[in-house]
């Protein structure tokens, strides 16, 4: 058969679109096109900047206490958001608290999530070690996060690093389970077999074919877990295992303010509002990012 | 013609285990149980048979996507079951696969261009720019446009995706392409395009196809030779025309007679096979077809028939010579619809050639 014949079948099959159609927008511009996504991205960037620049932005030192202005309500001159029970400026405390909370939540989701994902992919891909890895995950799963916090604080001493370690370890089995289950489904797809038939190595196959098709549940779980981790972190702080006073951490601040809920509600409410904004923002952002990364949802 | 692929006594048995802790093997699913055939260069060998007879497993064994339990596969003189590492990679470049389901065979997160270029990248063929050029060339070869390279699989129809799958398989210039029911998921009109494309590519590139199908109309159009499988073993191998004209094995006869026929006077002369395909966990002793064979004798229940030559065909039946002639014409035994499809295929080819 001649080339011409192939071309004529081509003309019949190809969609009638002018050659050289414009290149589709990239991930970022698609993300910014959705109003909710754009707002959540901007808020997330602002939150991260505020946390990173806390020492520059904060009007006072976070440990500067002035008992005379203790429990000042918001709106007072010089103390826009009031002061806490020790008379420390709430704006400063919130900025430093945000810094600690973002670090804690982000680091434990990132560390635990990456380790869990690696274990999950290894389990799904190398079926020989699947049983062993999953039983190990079951062991981890049987301990509550608070118990890890207790054990790790007992070994390394309480503080934010101990909280990050404990929450990372508690996140690993959850992420491993989710990734393994999803990877097992993807492994059954023909394109995995096609990739194996080309003779590519395991690493390339996992990174290019397996992992990208498991992104959705990973993103969803990571954003959900981010909120959970912040709450767990504040629980640990409340038990005296996390951020140690006078260090500012949103969860710890909320639990401190609990005692003054009737006289000075702002001490507890303001950190909770910030936690709410942080968790909501990262949830929306995770959702939007998942959609933006999926070529099937591109227009 | 020289043999490109020789398969000898190929078997895949999946162990069946029982018990929670001390897993005892209580049996085996004999998915493929001693399959032998030869595929010559530039030839199309069709594997046909009912669902579950081991066609797809055989295909995956040939490509060594699963490890055989027994048997030998020789590809161009080299024993595929023995090589490993770098030599296996080199062999993989020479044999590729086209899948049945065009919706599952392409990674939804890779653009078509990346998907086609990937096998070349894996084997270190060319550089980034030359691979891009080759992708354009392959897209034209399978009848797609250059700008399709930047699109994602979900933007294509089933037939177009199957063309992409074919382009990906051809990217590394293989000698053998295993086609696992490449058109059974497509509409009839699209089937014609894809089947003809595959025939053209074979003629132009000198490909050999191991073509798996259960659709006898497509097989009749595509194949040079046909191997009929039943319950994990080959029952009959023969040249296409000879096999359709004079099926030697009772199972082949039953298979061809089961094609719906437009002639109402055939009714009553054709006795369909009774019973069901036995479980591959409990393959009958002797001839594995004896439980359903209308001509079964005592010998069939005890002695396994070997695949033996009989006037150019190979048959695994003790009584192939002495079977009564059913007096059925199988060559015209395609349904009206199937005959129309064959005519459609030919018309499409003629139109394309004009």
Helix content of chain B: 25-40%
CATH topology of the largest domain in chain B, by name, is Rossmann fold
What composes the largest sheet of chain B? Answer: 8 strands, mixed
Radius of gyration of chain B: 21 Å
Order of helices and strands of chain B: EEEHEEHEHHHEHEHEEHHHEEH
Radius of gyration of chain A: 25 Å
Give the biggest sheet of chain A.
none
Low-confidence stretches of chain A: 1-20
How would you describe this protein?
The complex is a heterodimer of chains A (299) and B (354). Chain A is 70% helix and 0% strand. Chain A is flat, with a radius of gyration of 25 Å. Chain A is mainly α. Chain A is built from 13 helices and no strands. Residues 1-20 of chain A have low confidence and may be disordered. By secondary structure, chain B is α/β, with parallel strands linked by helices. Chain B has 11 helices and 12 strands. In chain B, the strands form 2 sheets. An 8-stranded mixed beta sheet of chain B has the order 6-7-8-3-9-10-12-11, with helices on both faces. In chain B, strands 2-1-4-5 form a 4-stranded antiparallel beta sheet. The longest helix of chain B is centred in the middle third of the chain and has 18 residues, at 188-205.
Quick overview:
Chain A is mainly α and 299 residues long. Chain A has helices at 3-13, 27-33, 35-52, 54-57, 90-125, 127-141, 145-156, 160-187, 190-197, 202-210, 215-238, 250-257, 266-293.
């Amino acid at each position: 058969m001649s080339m011409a014949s192939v071309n004529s079948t081509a003309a019949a099959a190809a969609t009638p679109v002018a050659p050289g159609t414009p290149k589709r927008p990239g991930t970022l511009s698609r993300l910014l096109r959705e109003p909710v996504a754009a707002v959540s991205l901007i808020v997330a960037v602002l939150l991260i900047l505020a946390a990173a620049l806390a020492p520059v932005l904060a009007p006072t030192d976070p440990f500067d206490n002035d008992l005379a202005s203790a429990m000042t309500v918001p709106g007072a001159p010089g103390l826009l958001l009031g002061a806490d029970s020790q008379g420390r400026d709430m704006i400063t405390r919130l900025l430093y608290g945000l810094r600690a909370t973002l670090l804690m939540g982000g680091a434990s989701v990132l560390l635990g999530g990456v380790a869990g994902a690696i274990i999950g992919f290894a389990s799904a891909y190398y079926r020989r070690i699947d049983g062993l890895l999953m039983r190990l995950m079951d062991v981890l799963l049987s301990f509550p996060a608070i118990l890890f916090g207790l054990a790790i604080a007992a070994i390394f001493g309480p503080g934010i690093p101990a909280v990050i370690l404990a929450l990372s370890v508690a996140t690993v089995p959850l992420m491993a389970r989710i990734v393994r289950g999803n990877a097992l489904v993807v492994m059954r797809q023909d394109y995995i077999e096609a990739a194996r038939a080309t003779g590519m190595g395991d690493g390339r196959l996992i990174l290019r074919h397996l992992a990208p098709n498991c992104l959705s549940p990973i993103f969803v779980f990571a954003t959900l877990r981010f909120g959970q981790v912040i709450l767990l972190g504040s629980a640990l702080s409340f038990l005296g295992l996390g951020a140690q006073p006078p260090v500012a951490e949103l969860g710890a601040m909320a639990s401190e303010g609990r005692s003054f809920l009737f006289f000075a509600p702002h001490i507890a409410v303001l950190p909770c509002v910030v936690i709410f904004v942080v968790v909501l923002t990262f949830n929306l952002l995770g959702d939007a990012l998942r959609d933006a990364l999926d070529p099937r949802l591109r227009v | 013609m020289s043999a490109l692929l020789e398969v000898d006594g190929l078997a895949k048995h999946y162990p069946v285990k029982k018990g929670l802790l001390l897993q005892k093997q209580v049996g085996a699913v004999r998915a493929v149980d001693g399959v032998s055939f030869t595929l010559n260069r530039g030839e199309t060998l069709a594997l046909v048979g009912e669902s579950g007879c081991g066609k797809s497993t055989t295909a995956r064994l040939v490509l060594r996507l699963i490890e055989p339990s027994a048997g030998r596969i020789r590809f161009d003189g080299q024993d595929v079951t023995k090589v490993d590492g770098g030599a296996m990679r080199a062999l993989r470049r020479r044999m590729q696969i086209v899948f049945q389901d065009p919706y599952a065979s392409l990674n939804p997160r890779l653009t078509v261009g990346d998907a086609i270029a990937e096998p070349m990248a894996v084997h270190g063929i060319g550089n980034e720019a030359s691979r891009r050029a080759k992708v354009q060339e392959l897209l034209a070869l399978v009848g797609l446009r250059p700008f399709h390279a930047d699109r994602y699989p979900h933007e294509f129809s089933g037939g177009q995706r199957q063309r992409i799958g074919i382009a990906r398989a051809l990217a590394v210039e293989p000698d053998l392409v295993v086609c696992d029911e490449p058109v059974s998921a497509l509409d009839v009109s699209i089937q014609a395009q894809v089947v003809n494309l595959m025939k053209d590519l074979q003629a132009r590139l000198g490909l050999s196809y191991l073509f798996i199908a259960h659709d006898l109309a497509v097989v009749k159009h595509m194949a040079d030779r046909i191997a009929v499988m039943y319950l994990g073993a080959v029952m009959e191998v023969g040249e296409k025309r000879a096999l359709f004209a004079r099926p030697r094995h009772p199972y082949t006869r039953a298979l061809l007679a089961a094609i719906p026929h437009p002639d109402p006077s055939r009714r009553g002369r054709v006795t369909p096979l009774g019973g069901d395909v036995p479980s591959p966990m409990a393959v009958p002793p002797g001839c594995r077809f004896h439980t359903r064979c209308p001509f079964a004798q005592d010998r069939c229940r005890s002695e396994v028939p070997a695949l033996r030559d009989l006037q150019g065909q190979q048959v695994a039946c003790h009584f192939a010579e002495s079977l009564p002639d059913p007096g059925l014409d199988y060559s015209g035994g395609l349904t009206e619809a199937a005959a129309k499809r064959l005519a459609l295929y030919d018309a499409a080819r003629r139109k394309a050639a004009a």
